[in-house]
């Protein structure tokens, strides 16, 4: 159970960093999606 929780924590941290990266990219270059 603890292992699964640690994996979820790492995954959430990765998602948070990824969304931050996307946000900074959007500010630098206004992309039309």
TrEMBL record:
This is Uncharacterized protein.
């Amino acid at each position: 159970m603890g292992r699964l929780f640690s994996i979820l924590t790492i995954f959430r941290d990765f998602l948070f960093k990824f969304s931050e990266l996307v946000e900074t990219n959007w500010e630098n270059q206004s992309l039309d999606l």
